[in-house]
Amino acid sequence: MFSIIICLIAPPVIAIQVSNYFTRDVLREQAAKNARESLDVANLFVTHLFNTMIYMTNNIQFDNETTTVMKKLGQQPLDPAQLVLDGKYMTNKLETLVFSTDHVYMSVLLPNNAYFTNYSGSEFDPLKFRSEPWFPKLDRLTDYDILWVGSHPNYIQSRSKASPYMITIARVLKSGNSQPYAYLILSVEAQMINDFFNKYAPTQKMALTDSAGKILAGTDNDQIGTTFAYADTITDPLKPKFLMVDHQEYILLNESILFSGWHLVSLISYENAIGKIQNIRTNDYLAQFVFLLIFIVFLFWIINRITKPLIVLAKVASNVNLGTLSVRADIHGSDEIGRLGRVFNQMLDRIESMIDQITEEQTRKRKLELELLQAQINPHFFFNLLNSIRMKIRMRGDIESADIISSLSKLLRMTINRNNEFVPVHLEADTVRHYVKLMNVRHNQKIQFEESIASNVLLEEIPRLTIQPFIENAFIHGLNQKYGHIVLSIWKDENYLFISVKDDGVGIGVQRMTDLQKSLKREENSRINGIGLKNVYDRLTMVYGTSFKMDIHSDVHKGTEIRIKLPLTGKGEVYHV
């Protein structure tokens, strides 16, 4: 059933993945095109708004009557009567220009501090423009230049809540002697642009930025005045930029606004850009899934009628679950069900065999525990007694004998102490040194002991008394308790710790090597009865499982090397004794 379902599901899933792979570039191109079209419309709106603002300032600059009035009213000293007579004309002129456009504010400042506006002077004093940092720049402009001031807080108090920001441009009008006779400041509420962005493309985040990347208007008022986060990623304004934002792919677009040096930027989620196409594909996939589900249900119904004999096998499995391992499935035949019954019976046979094997291993484990417990008889008595003997001998001046007893005490403490089953390599090496020292005292023939321990393994932990049995085996069997060399080497790589004990003794013959291998594997026909190597082998196997390896290499009359490989991580169940 599983194979059938896989065969049914795999082809459409693979087809979907292949389709997604080959259509990905087309979808990305179409998504970028759709986003570009929306940005083009927004560009038209913003460009039209700026052109309207430029037209208003041009209308004042190139209207002869208006120019004459501004020059006359701007003379020094200010004539109050003339200001009253011609001031009404200027006010009507400004109101007429902005009549067709909402929320546009126009100010005309004259050199003698006279001014005209289309808004109430109680809302804002236009003379405050002179204190703005951008105002001195106007005197350096020509008649045809425009100062694109940018975005700033709304200075019309009654509108500051509804539209917190304004976008302003400014111009200077100069006479033939290049002296300014009027300053034009024109502002529009940025909310006009914001509302258009939100209504026309609600899923597309648009923003108007200046040449430095500062946001002048956009879908989020909180970002106005800040720098557009992805301005530096735009390398080619004509090409869309795909980038990841919060683990989601976005399309970044950029377009220039004519005359101003400003830009329109757009950031839209790739998923939103292809939302309609994805909905169609999702509905298609859903329909396929529903029909596939109906077919699978029908298939289950047919298979269930064919596989009724499996109910019998299930009853047998239930009895096994209750602990009755002697039960067997009485199913015959050469078909799949018959073979399944035979395999089930074989599985029960193997389970019984494994239980017997586990029982034997537990028995061996308890035997090892008893062997090691024998070494723990009254340890404090031995330590205290040895320390007392050592102090008496040392007080009599026999320093050498006192050191020997000290080594014996430390070796016994390491052997008997079971507080920590794992010890650092440097402590295990100290145990080996004390052991070799004692062996040299015991026998007339001195052992020449060498060690090569890498500095980066000293703090690695290994099971207690891992190396000492190998040293003892090399001395007793390899060197026959005579003079010779024993070399201890410890190093590691990225994953494993390696320990090598090598002697230059008599070596091991082929037959004895075979018996030794059988002994380590606990085979019954082994001729070797020693427990040293077998004890270490069993302990390390219980600790590390199959990750532990022991290799024995020997040449007759040349020597023997025992090398073990211990994993640095991933220990199995820790063996406690």
Automatic annotation (TrEMBL):
Its main location: membrane. CDD domains: HAMP (cd06225). It comes from the Bacteria. SMART domains: HAMP (SM00304). It is a multi-pass membrane protein. Pfam families: HAMP, HATPase_c, His_kinase. It is found in: Cell membrane. This is Sensor histidine kinase. It comes from Paenibacillus gyeongsangnamensis.
